[in-house]
């Protein structure tokens, strides 16, 4: 991970081996603040090196509140936007190499979105609780195809009436 030209760039090297408690490879950056109630998080992304079918996932997550939205490439599904909120999973086949992602929680209902044709398109929605920690990142599991991948994130923003940020 590195800051380059004002963006967060995340790279997975071709020889990376999945491991650790998540059996994954990659990296993510998370907020120090937690968001116990309503929030609206957005980020832009650009896929610089994105090998098709390499089983990669790049996006925005609401950790501990069970939400994700992002771009995915896999052998089985191909190129798509993918999202989940708890057990609710959705995807749409699109091969865009840049775009914007959003996760919003209002009154315990979380919805994931991607930006398309000048508007936010909802993808997955469901009940969500727990103090969310928001993160952006690039990951792959044990099925990583072994080719270099590089993604950049920019313009990350969160609005929330009740954020808890440790001193």
Compact overview of the structure:
Helix content is 0%, strand content 60%. It contains no helices and 13 strands.
Shape: globular
Helix-strand makeup class? mainly beta
- Quote the distance from N terminus to C terminus: 25 Å
Question: pLDDT under 50 segments (min length 5)?
Answer: none
Mean of residue pLDDT values: 95
Instruction: Please indicate the percent range of residues in DSSP E strands (runs of 2 or more).
Output: over 45%
Helix proportion? under 10%
Largest sheet: 7 strands, antiparallel
Helix and strand run = EEEEEEEEEEEEE
Number of strands: 13
Rg over C-alpha atoms, rounded to the nearest angstrom: 15 Å
How many helices? The count is 0
- Neighbour order of strands in the largest sheet: 1-2-13-4-9-10-11
Oligomer state of the chains in this structure: single chain
Describe the structure.
With 167 residues, the protein is mainly β. It is 0% helix and 60% strand. The strands form 2 sheets. Strands 1-2-13-4-9-10-11 form a 7-stranded antiparallel sheet, with no helix packed on it. A hairpin with a 2-residue loop joins strand 10 and strand 11. It is globular. The two termini are 25 Å apart. The model has no long low-confidence stretch (mean pLDDT 95).
Give structural attributes.
0% helix, 167 residues, six-stranded antiparallel beta sheet, single chain, 13 strands, seven-stranded antiparallel beta sheet, mainly beta
Could you outline the blueprint of secondary structure elements for this entry?
Elements: E1 2-4, E2 7-12, E3 25-30, E4 39-49, E5 56-63, E6 67-74, E7 78-85, E8 88-92, E9 98-106, E10 109-116, E11 119-127, E12 133-140, E13 149-159
Antiparallel strand pairs: 1-2, 2-13, 3-12, 4-9, 4-13, 5-6, 5-12, 6-7, 7-8, 9-10, 10-11
């Amino acid at each position: 991970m590195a800051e380059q030209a004002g963006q967060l760039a995340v790279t997975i090297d071709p020889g990376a081996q999945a491991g650790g408690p998540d059996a994954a490879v990659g990296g993510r950056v998370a907020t120090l603040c937690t968001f116990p109630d309503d929030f609206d998080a957005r980020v832009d992304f650009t896929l610089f090196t994105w090998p098709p079918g390499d089983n990669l996932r790049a996006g925005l997550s609401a950790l501990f509140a069970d939400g994700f939205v992002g771009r995915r490439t896999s052998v089985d599904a191909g190129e798509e936007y993918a999202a989940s909120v708890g057990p609710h999973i959705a995807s749409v086949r699109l091969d865009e190499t840049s775009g914007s992602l959003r996760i919003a929680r209002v009154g315990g209902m979380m919805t994931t979105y991607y930006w398309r044709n000048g508007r936010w398109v909802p993808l997955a929605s469901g009940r969500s609780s727990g103090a969310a920690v928001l993160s952006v990142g690039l990951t792959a599991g044990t099925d990583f195809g072994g080719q270099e991948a590089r993604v950049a994130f920019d313009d990350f923003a969160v609005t929330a009436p009740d954020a808890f940020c440790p001193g």
